[in-house]
Amino acid sequence: MLAKVTIFSQNKKLFFGQTNFFFLLRKEKNQTKDMADKSSTNSGIIYNMLAVGSKIKGDFIADSNFRIDGIFEGNIQCSGKVIVGATGNVIGNLICSTAEIMGTVQGTLTISEMLSLKSTAKVTGDIKTKVLSIEPKAYFSGTCDMSTEKPEPESK
Description:
By secondary structure, the protein is an all-beta fold.
């Protein structure tokens, strides 16, 4: 997969062009600290990460988990879990199997399994998911579709 991206870090342009892979790839050991915070456990799998102070514009497609602590402008399609940390900001559509939001998301969220909005989350846009968990003080503005049925095509 080839993506055209611009990467910024603390207001300095680091890269512009085409690349096959542009995120930090990390392997964590099993521990109680997870990619997000101390709220869940890390299974020791490989994941992609956008660090604090970094900004990316473009579309992203991945088979593994993705953690966002910086700014991402574009669409994300991920087969695994997407975590938007407390400092993370996503402007664009998100498609993934599960998601945990602690930061800000503006766009349409299509989550095939479970979406969890933590108390610091700010989500503006429409949600389609099977399971939705919203902690007290989380902000959500938009519509939510939790139907498990596939929409029937309109007949003419």
